[in-house]
From TrEMBL:
Domain of life: Archaea
Family matches, as CDD domains: TM_ABC_iron-siderophores_like
Pfam families: FecCD
Transmembrane domains' residue ranges: 97-118, 127-148, 154-172, 184-204, 224-246, 273-301, 340-358
Listed GO CC annotations: plasma membrane
Membrane topology, record value: Multi-pass membrane protein
Species of origin: Halarchaeum grantii
Chief location bin: membrane
InterPro entries xref list: ABC_BtuC-like, ABC_transptr_permease_BtuC
The protein's name: Cobalamin import system permease BtuC
GO molecular function: transmembrane transporter activity
Family statement drawn from the similarity comment of this UniProt entry: Belongs to the binding-protein-dependent transport system permease family. FecCD subfamily.
Gene3D superfamilies: ABC transporter involved in vitamin B12 uptake, BtuC
Subcellular location: Cell membrane
């Protein structure tokens, strides 16, 4: 099958799987809602702009006159649905489900890039320290009560902490303008261990905040809002586009840095871009969800077995599969009598499954 046709067929199938997973998930809860009703509620929420008007008005009491733009919209559909179902789906369940899909998309995408970058299927997004750095930032705000500037709170602290950790590891692993993969990996292990000790110390010293800190460290989507969804959805597609632009570079890097240089790839520049964008993608995901493990490790590994190592196909398919996987895991996490952090579910499912895959691989190599 030609690569273009293969990409299209897999993308279409995984997109359909994601849509079905979202619709089914939104219907599961204390109040069961049929998937068809959920679909109608979602379709009723779709609007298109119909008019654009510009007028002027005074801004406060300053007398400064500025143009004001207003956009008229109209709904595409008008299905009859119960008001209770609409409120439950649109205000309670759907923000959490959409955020879960975006976080799963981001983690699987970053994990795919890291596995190609390090040429190691055991790599995941946390390997460059983003998760540990984000955890230090978030736990600091939760346990110490440090207030962050600009009202960023826990999300901002986690995001900046993750980026600072990734930048520190990159700086430690770079010498003379070169960043050897092995050195970067060892620097990441050392920094992650150090940051883990910092987190442990803060948890030991914490008081009533211990439960909240532990809950964040296990990953959760319980307080998801449309604001979190909007912030994530506005940034993630751009970063995804950048990584897609480097999909051929990732394929060439699989041959080794020497061969990549021979084939005309600017290896060091490519590595900087891949590391920076992957760190941003991971930091965005961790900032809104906490530390969720195994999504960026298991999903790319499984998709590589299904579609092969070609990153032209592997990047989009892994991202879509990661979105469906985390939506399904979060559905399980919130469906019990007591809501669990979704990180517990992903670890409970992901760890045994990954061990099974490793065992099958070992048997195949005998």
């Amino acid at each position: 099958m030609r690569p273009g046709l293969k990409i299209g067929s897999w993308t279409l199938a995984l997109t359909a799987l994601l849509v079905v997973t979202v619709l089914v998930s939104a219907g599961i809860g204390t109040v069961a809602i049929p998937a068809l009703t959920v679909a109608r509620v979602c379709l009723n929420a779709l609007v298109v702009p119909t008019s654009l008007s510009v007028h002027t008005g005074a801004l406060g009491t300053t007398g400064v006159v500025l143009p004001t733009v207003s956009v008229g919209t109209t709904h595409l559909f008008d299905f009859q649905t119960p008001e209770t179902s609409r409120i439950i789906v649109m205000t309670i369940r759907l923000p959490r489900i959409v955020l879960a899909s975006l976080v799963g998309f981001a983690l699987a995408l970053a994990g795919t890039v890291m596995q190609g970058f390090f040429r190691n299927p055991m790599a995941d997004p946390s390997i460059i320290g983003v998760s540990s750095g984000a955890a230090v930032g978030a736990v600091t705000v939760i346990t110490v009560g440090v207030s962050f500037p600009f009202g960023l709170g826990i999300h901002g602290a986690a995001f900046l902490g993750g980026l600072l950790a990734a930048f520190g590891i990159y700086a430690l692993g770079t010498r003379g303008g070169r960043t050897p993969v092995t050195t970067l990996l060892l620097a990441g292990v050392a920094v992650e261990t150090f940051l883990g000790a910092v987190i442990s110390y803060m948890l030991v010293q914490s008081g009533n905040e211990l439960r909240a800190a532990m809950y964040w460290l296990m990953g959760h989507l319980q307080n998801a809002s449309w604001g979190d969804v909007t912030a994530t959805a506005l940034t993630l597609p751009l970063l995804f586009g950048v990584l897609l632009g480097y999909r051929r570079h990732l394929n060439v890097l699989l041959l080794g840095e020497h061969d990549a240089k021979t084939l005309g790839i600017e290896v060091e520049r490519t590595k900087r871009v891949l590391l920076a964008v992957s760190a941003l993608v991971t930091a965005i995901a961790v900032a809104v969800s906490g530390v969720i493990g195994f999504v960026g490790l298991v999903v790319p590994h499984v998709m590589r077995l299904l579609v092969g190592p070609d990153h032209r196909i592997l990047l989009p398919t892994s991202a879509l599969a990661g979105a469906s996987f985390l939506v399904a895991a979060d559905t399980v996490a919130r469906s019990g009598p007591a809501q669990l952090p979704v990180g517990i579910v992903t670890a409970f499912v992901g760890a045994p499954f990954f061990l099974y895959l490793l065992r099958q691989r070992e048997v195949a190599e005998l």
